[in-house]
Hints:
This is Twitching motility protein PilT. The chain is an alpha/beta fold and about 120 residues long. The protein has a single domain, classed as Rossmann fold (3-Layer(aba) Sandwich), CATH 3.40.50. It has six helices and six strands, in the order E-H-H-E-H-H-E-H-E-H-E-E. The chain has a six-stranded mixed β-sheet, sandwiched between helices. Strand 4, helix 6 and strand 5 (about 110-115) form a beta-alpha-beta unit. The longest helix has 12 residues, at about 55-65.
Amino acid sequence: MNVVLDTNALMMPVExxxxxxxxxxxxLPPGYELFVPExxxxxxxxxxxxxxxxxxxxxxxxxxxxxxxPVEHDAPYADDAVLEVARELEAxxxxxxxxxxxxxxxxxxxxxGLRGHNKLERNEP
Length: 125
């Protein structure tokens, strides 16, 4: 199973106290593969150069993204890239971004998002 990570998914451990990889292990079958679009890596790098909690979360997210395979794409923006890569890889996307989730559902892409305070759940479109 292929899984694409969005920017805010990688920032969840700091911002929402979500144990991202433990949760993915809990809800996904063994052997899933993680992917991250290059635009997400760029967005994390920009956000981490600031100050405050968001910068810390982005810095941690950039470190966590090293567990995923980076993917090149043609899309100029991170959300577009997530959708493009998810379609190409027939992947499930991890995101807590409601507008992106809605776009993914419209495209028939399954989404893993926050359920309750710090648990994840998989949702089919």
